[in-house]
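FIELD: query
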Amino acid sequence: MNSSENVLTGQWSSKQSLPKKLFTCGHCGHKSGSEHGYLLHAKGKSHIKIAFIYICGGCNQPSYFGDGQQVPAPILGNRVDGLPEELNNLYSEARQCTSIGAYTACVLACRKMLMHIAVDRGATEGENFWAYVQYLNDNNYIPPNGGGWVDYIREKGNEANHEIVVMEEMDAFRLLSFVEMLLKFIYEFPSMLPSNNSESEEIEAGE
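FIELD: result
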């Protein structure tokens, strides 16, 4: 979410000075301390202040604050490098869902990612979700003492997919955090090491 594609160029017209507000931008993920934006007054003689729009100092995008909410909300999760393109796109989609409160969609995306990871690590295609979670556990991709996680993932993954149950923010946060951990261990950390070929080239260059 720190891509330059999120940066909005140009100048906002007639910005106002506002009380300084510290917030995490839902567009770019930067922590911003903005003092400029727009103020909305309620209709009527009292002109009660009810909402603000602050402009992020990092990407120049607007964030709305009103009724105790921020729109778009800060995105849950962190960037993971070294992912295959399809998995990276799905992980980004799951994170984006959290910024608009689509927590059930996030949980379903996490469910799909876990199935994809299992198949990529050698599980048979066409199995059910339970079998894929069990495969990850049996092959030590789920950390020791992770039995509670196995049960939680099965429960929430099946609820979101088969029942009319709306997932909460904490459900999305937990599953997204778990998937992020797997992605880092399985893909990002191995990609940080130099390949055998590059190591050989470095040795030859030093001789």
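FIELD: remark
The mean pLDDT is 84.
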